[in-house]
Structure formats: C-alpha cells, structure tokens
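User: Predict the structure for this protein chain, please.
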Amino acid sequence: MLVLDAAETRSALPWDGLVKALGDMFAKGCVMPVRHHHEVEVPGEADATLLLMPAWQPGAYIGVKMVSVFPGNQTRGLPAIHGSYLLSSGKTGELLAIVDGGELTARRTAAASALAARYLARPDARSMLMVGTGRLSANVIEAHASVRPIREVAVWGRDPRKAEATARELDLKGVSVSVATDLETAAREADIISCATLSSEPLICGDWLKPGAHLDLIGAFKPTMRESDDRAVARASLFVDTRDGALKEGGDIVQPLRAGVITEASIRADLFELARGTHPGRTAPDEITLFKSVGAALEDLAGAVLAFEASGGRS
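Assistant: Here is the predicted structure, written as structure tokens:
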C-alpha cells in the first residue's frame, strides 16, 4: 500500500496534469453519491464540519475522503482543514493508497477553479485579486497562473500580516505580487477575483465588477455563508461545479435563490457541461462571469488516482 504525505502529494499533482485530470473526469463522469455532511460541536467556539465524500469508477478505482473543517484552528495557528483520502481497487476492494487529504483538497479545489477559468475568464486576463489568506490562497493563485497569463496579483485579507505572509510565499516567475489594503479598489481593477474564505457576509459587491471580470467563489461552503452580494449574482452569468452541490450548499447561490433574485434556470452550466463542450462558457469579452464551487467527490477521486499512478502505483 502506498502512503503519500503532504509533500509527496503536492509533487504528484502538478497543475497542468491535475487540471487535465479533473477535466477528463468531469467529461467522462463517475459514480458520486451525495456526500455526508455533519456539524460537529466544539465547546466554546464555532462548530466544526465533518465531510465524508465517496466516489468510484466501476472496475477501476473506489475512493472516499474524510475531511474535518475546524474554523477555530485559525486562532491556534493551525490549518482549518485536515483529512485523508483512501483509494481502493475497483476490482478487488484492496486498499491501494492513503493520500494526504489536506493537500489533495487544496490542490484539487484550486485546479477546479482553474479548469472553470479556462472556459470563463478572458483569455487575456492579466490581473488577479486573491481574497483570503488561508491554505488555499497560494494554490489558487498558482493554479490560475497556469491557465491564464497572470502578471499582477494582489492579496487581501482581514489580517494584513497574513496577507503579507501569503504574498511572500508566492514565487511565480514574471508575476508581480502585492498586498491590497483597499478591497473595493483592488476588486474594481482585477480581471479575476478569487475568494477562499469562511465569510458569512458578502465581501465582493457586484457594482465593483468591471466588464469582462471573472468572479471565482471557492469558500462559503454552507448555505449560511457567502462571499458575494445579490448584485454580483444578478449581474453575472452563473456557473457552478455541480448543480446539486451548489443549489444545496453554496450560500452564494442558495441565498439569492431563496430571495427570488435568481432562479435555478439562471445557472448557465456546470463543469460537466463545460468539460463536455455542451456549453461554451464565456461568450463575449465584456461578459461578467461567476463560478461557484462547493467541491465534489469526483475531483478528489481524479486527484487521488493521478497522485497514485504518478507515484508508480497500479490498480
């Protein structure tokens, strides 16, 4: 049995290969039951979340990820996300690999947004605003830079010191990195805005989005959370990773749906339709696009299989 730690998982999942693996998996599909989502009480602080996400390709691979999200870890200097991925043979059920779940989650999440950006962000997008300073932030920036000609990146966080730390962590050739001190100003200038936070209140206002902007919403994975306001959702062409997930769990979609700002028909396409070519994605240079992801077990399976096979494993 293969065991991949965080560093080994990262090495086995280069952006170009991972984005392609996700695109192929969305195009081909797999069996993906509804994930288990449980609230876990943590005395004296915000509730944690336990996620169990199974998926399989009949006759090939079976996988399940167990992930915990502890918001209170931010005050301890610890990652909010911990987890492991168990990859088994789809022929015999034999356990083939244990993959670091935190690293797999961070990279496949970023790669899914980069895959969406291939269809939704302008081909000439050069400037990016990263809202959030957690583990995902550097991954998201690197992933987008692998699919679009990003030359300027601004990082914004509630804690400027964390934003500075994230900016220092980045080492992208030919890319200028700065810390944004005014969120509105930075958002109005950006070609791509990515948000990866645990915010329960809107951070990005629709009136800030310039023509042709692409808004990538990664955080706010519960119906009670959101990173954009109703104006942003109303102005933009809406896309999601999976319809079932976004309509059930993504607060940026669920809340405006309940308020009557949009309808289910407002969602133009999901990543299945984009990857299969049944929807073209962006259709005009000045179109404002919005992509909401909540994560899907398919993405984990694609990443785990890639990491396993890249490390010499065989089913």
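The mean pLDDT is 95.
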